[in-house]
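Sat 14:20. Reprocessing the chain from the morning session after the first attempt stalled halfway. Input below, unchanged.
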Amino acid sequence: MSMLVTILVSVFNRVMCSFTANIVLWWTPFLDEPGRIIRCGNYSRCFLTSNRKYKDDPRLKALLFYGSLFNQSDLPLERNSKLWGLLHEESPRNTPLLSHEVILSLFNYSSTFSRFSDLPLTLQYLPSLDDLTDQKYLVSFEAKSNLEDKLAPVVYIQSDCVTPNNRDSYVYELMNHINVDSYGECLNNKKLPVSLSNPLETMMSDELLHFVSKYKFAIAFENSVCDDYITEKLWRPLIAGTVPIYYGSPSAKNSFSKVYKCVNQNDCV
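Finished this time. Tokens:
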């Protein structure tokens, strides 16, 4: 049955493509895209696909590149008049080439974490502004204090232990001065519940937010220090009602009231 559905979808997409004047091709796809009809810009309809058999189709108008898979040795040989678009939600450490102007100049449009890109993804990890004021996960300061015989005042959850900013070195030193419950693979001294063991699937889950909300402080260190690169590491404790000790985008410093002196780790030394 599943094979029949796949065949029918493939046939449908080919038929629909024949009625569409414009094609958008994922050259390095964010997700595998066999083909579907989308609305796009000034065109009424476009056929979006990652199938490179359409690379020489005269209806091809634009090529899209996913930054983490970008390879300078695997590019279309003829640029012609086609538009190139870049999608890259990660920090430059994933693809250092994308830190160079000569490479960025290849693209007509970009959608990255930078506020200066054409379609900024700066708030990509914040589900809603309302989440910052919602008290769904709120645990009172008194209740958190009552948990101090079981929990440290500070929580650290991280499994990417090799980073350009060497964040674990700072956390290691911090642990000499204050108790830190460290989950994940980095500096581990406590185990996460099995249900939270997959970080990609649970990074903003209800269960993890309730878990973090029991702590007074959360270490929120990005893997790289880049303007505008702000991920769930900052938003997660803010949504959970826990004070983040933040190290990352310098532009975040002027975005939050300094109610606590140590919201920014640079103020804690």
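The two ends are 63 Å apart (CA to CA).
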